[in-house]
Amino acid sequence: MQTMMVRRFGTAAVVLAISAAVACHHANTSSTLADQCFTAMMPAAGEDVAVNTIGGGCAAQAVPAHFPPDWRFKAGESGTFAPTAVVASNSALASAAGDEIMRAGGNAVDAAVATGFALAVTFPFAGNLGGGGYMVIRMADGRTAAVDYREIAPLAASRDMYLGPDGKLTDESVVGYRASGVPGAVAGMSAALAKYGTKSLREVLQPAIRLAAEGFIVDSVLFTSLDHNRDYIERFDGKKLFYPNGEPLQPGTRFHQPALARTLRLIADRGPDAFYSGEVADSLVTGMKRGGGIITKEDLARYKPEWRQPIVSTYHGYKLLTMPPSSSGGVTITETLNILETFDSLPPFGSVAYTHALASAYQRAFIDRNSKLGDPAFVHVPLDKLTSKTYARELRKTIAPDRATPTPVLERTIADGNHTTHYSVVDGAGNAVTTTTTINNGYGSGVYLTGPGFFMNDEMDDFAAQPGKPNMFGLVQGEQNAIAPGKRMLSAMSPTIVLDHQGKLLLVVGAAGGPRIITATSQVILNVIQNHMTLADAMRAPRLHHQALPDTLRFEEHGLTPEVVDSLKAMGWNVDPLRGSANVNAIMRANGGWVAVTEPRDRGPSRAVGH
Ligand code: DON
Prior knowledge:
Structural class: alpha+beta
Distance between the termini: 47 Å
Oligomer: single chain
Bound molecules: 6-diazenyl-5-OXO-L-norleucine
Number of strands: 22
Helix content: 25-40%
């Protein structure tokens, strides 16, 4: 196990959701009503009923959620209502950047890119230029696309590069100059903008440039995050900027980032080439080389984002558009929901039987994830099989109604032997974007490059640096995800769009949090479409997690009643607390507009901004 396990990656995720109403005849300022109204439209699982809508809104009441008595959140809260457009991300300033662009006539893609660049300034924990991500787009005219701007292994990378002389894993895939993949963020966002945006890169970069050049006021969230990550960042060159006078940036002070502002201006002037072959590339390569890094100018020059077809799946008549490999997110969510759909009706939320069904589905989907998925440019990925309903029915047969199956037993039958940030956008025309981006850990590899002014990722740890041995997230992955030069490391990022039975945009969702991204994103979706919760409740509902190995069902403290926990143990489940859930940001259609809910487990007010 690597030494950096103690580092905080739980919050290194950004989910941004931007959305705008297609038809908002009834601007409704009651967020509770809007929120409840929308979930109330959901037909019961398996029912194929017509939705009762009025002017793009809905008519019935939501089903109240029931949480365990000691659970930290109460049901019945509301989200942020916006009649026209809204962005939900981990930074209110970044959400406001997207909102500003939409107010100026930009569409959801323009806003998503503006938010993405602004996050690199205001949320250095996970927002980035030095990382990568995934974006799923659905335009109102029905076009869909997925942009894979995941980092790739440098050309000088090799299969065993993180093994020490004793054959054991070192921590170099997690921390320091050798932990970084070649960044894809600037290329990916620029490509999405060029194809689906309406504004120039220069225009959408303006809010980010302003925030970097003129500065922004440090809040307690940034202060605390810097304080927590101090030992780590201070080892590298970010010390002076983030700890002036030896202390973290203080709340209430103005924080300027002139180097980053300069980099952003260069990108605005010369496009992504400024980053991949121009001045920024020079400065990045020099800075990395100085610390023993292996990224070269050739690596940067040959980086290309990939356009992919989103995975399209269904769950009881709802349609999901989600991210295909090189992320595992879409496949694993699809496989999980397909297994759950084989149940005639799922038991009530929070019950022993419900938890057993969910955990069993995750366990099986993660076995496939960990052994069969990898970069499709390098390995064969059985995508059609894994996402098929037939295969889900086969897997269902391996679930005993009253017993947990140990992962090693299942692996023999199923396996073939062999701080992130998410944002979502919907605009007034009904275009939707959902994006997750990351530098992996909070503040990535810890390496801050003073020249271009940003943190580099530690994404190399998402590879199976030693197949069969756990990575930082405890994921035990196989040969399919072994390191090779130019290869994308497997991700769990799961940006997802859900359409209702009429094909209308319903939910824009995604998360940060390593493998918990998959389980948390799918549980928010299930809570809405299966358990009929309002989005606010769906986000607050207690979450569980199972990733096959370690063979443990994890649940949030007090998220299951003691009686349920005892029953699960009696069924053979290893049950343990889930420390730190994922960080989800989501938007859902509501009566006369949109409701956005940013992660309730984060402290502070909602970070969604809309109009
Ligand atoms: O791509 C992945 O699956 C990971 N690099 C995501 C890391 C993450 O979400 C960090 N956490 N909060």
